[in-house]
């Protein structure tokens, strides 16, 4: 099976390393960047170590090499630091990058579809949800995913798990809606082994904090995790690299994994994230978990933020 990665910057390289390190599915990966020397350099560097993980074969290439690809991951575009989207007080957040990155997608997507019309397209560039809507339109087919709130949900699960001192794999908790500032934390359906997280928080003792204060702190940490990372390293890339590799694995193995990922949702008229069944042809079903009234209203609001962004992009 063939996978393409477009954009060999921080996120593209991290996705590639994670895919090689997971090594669970045999595939050939084509790496492409407008800076061809960069794509060649990344592959030249990693290919030697990749021999320790023999199922993934790497090649720097051009669009023609994407022919027959099962999946093309797009990470090309400006990031938050370059695009000036690092102010926690700015409600637009990653949406500030939309206009610039939409221009880049208008150049990339038709070239991908011309050689790989059957490929599933995974958008990781920010803001991934409106860019996925643009990609559907440019591709002329619906097989488009946004990495969405998968990473946010992992962050949510880790914070809750640490607080409760349990393994994060056993925390079932979702962030839904936009991968951005309007994202929604589904506390009401969060569970550990069927036990409501709300009850566990009440029991656990809050180390001088009320449950409400703890929730606010977690939401703040997750919502702006990208900015905290940027303050330390200049760009968020390693976590999303692990996530794109896991998404790739679920697609190539046709797993029917249930993960919070973005796809076009006719009910909301836009691409947003909800728990979804993911396999070789992308998302086949979307679930709507139980939500409190407040969570439902917040999801509607998040959808409306995304619809406005898509509308504005259409007029740009
Ligand atoms: P980067 O600047 O390190 O890399 C971007 C790469 O895109 C560069 O190598 C550049 O040459 C390439 N590129 C630009 N235009 C291109 C074109 N027309 N064709 C081919 N390649 C092109 O940036 P990064 O840190 O890797 O971030 C990439 C994107 O991923 C950003 O939008 C960032 O905000 C986003 N991101 C998303 C998530 C997520 O959760 N979805 C997480 C972190 C970062």
Q: What does this molecule look like?
A:
This protein is α/β, with parallel strands linked by helices. Helices cover about 45% and strands about 20% of the residues. It has 11 helices and 14 strands. The strands form 4 sheets. Strands 3-2-1-4-5-6 form a 6-stranded parallel sheet, with helices on both faces. β13 (about 270-280) and β14 (about 280-285) form a beta hairpin. α5 (about 130-140) packs across α11. The two termini are about 35 Å apart. Nicotinamide-adenine-dinucleotide binds near residues 6, 35 and 237.
Considering the chains and any ligands shown, give keywords for the structure.
316 residues, six-stranded parallel β-sheet, 14 strands, 46% helix
Q: How many strands, which pairing sense, and closed or not: the largest β-sheet?
A: 6 strands, parallel
Strand content: 15-25%
Structural class: alpha/beta
Indicate the overall shape.
globular
Strand order of the largest sheet: 3-2-1-4-5-6
Low-confidence runs? none
What's the helix-strand series? EHEHEEHHEHEHEEEEEHHHHEEEH
Secondary structure: helix percent: 40-55%
Mean pLDDT: 95
So how many helices? 11
Bound small molecules, by name, code or SMILES, are: nicotinamide-adenine-dinucleotide
Number of strands: 14
Terminal CA distance: 37 Å
Radius of gyration from CA coordinates: 19 Å
């Amino acid at each position: 099976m063939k996978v393409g990665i477009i954009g060999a910057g921080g996120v593209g390289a991290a996705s590639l390393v994670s895919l090689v390190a997971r090594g669970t599915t045999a595939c050939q990966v084509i790496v492409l960047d407008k800076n061809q020397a960069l794509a060649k350099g990344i592959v030249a560097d990693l290919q030697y170590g990749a021999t320790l993980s023999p199922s993934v074969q790497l090649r720097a290439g051009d669009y023609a090499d994407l022919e027959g690809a099962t999946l093309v991951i797009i990470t090309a575009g400006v990031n938050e630091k370059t695009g000036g989207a690092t102010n926690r007080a700015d409600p637009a957040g990653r949406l500030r990058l939309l206009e610039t990155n939409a221009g880049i997608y208008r150049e990339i997507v038709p070239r991908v579809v011309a050689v790989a019309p059957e490929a599933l397209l995974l958008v990781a560039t920010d803001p991934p949800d409106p860019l996925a809507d643009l990609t559907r339109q440019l591709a002329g087919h619906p097989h488009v995913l946004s990495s969405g709130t998968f990473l946010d949900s992992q962050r949510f699960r880790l914070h809750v798990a640490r607080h409760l001192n349990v393994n994060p794999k056993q925390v079932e908790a979702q962030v839904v809606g936009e991968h951005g500032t309007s994202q929604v934390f589904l506390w009401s359906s969060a569970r550990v082994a069927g036990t409501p997280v709300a009850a566990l928080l009440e029991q656990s003792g809050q180390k001088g904090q009320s449950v409400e204060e703890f929730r606010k702190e977690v939401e703040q940490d997750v919502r702006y995790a990208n900015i905290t990372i940027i303050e330390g390293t200049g760009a968020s890339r390693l976590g999303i690299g692990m996530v794109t590799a896991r998404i790739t694995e679920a697609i190539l193995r046709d797993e029917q994994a249930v993960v919070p990922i973005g796809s076009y949702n006719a009910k909301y008229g836009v691409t947003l994230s909800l728990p979804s069944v993911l396999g070789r042809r992308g998302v086949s079903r979307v679930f709507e978990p139980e939500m409190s009234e407040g969570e439902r209203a917040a999801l509607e609001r998040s959808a409306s933020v995304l619809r406005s962004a898509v509308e504005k992009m259409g007029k740009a």
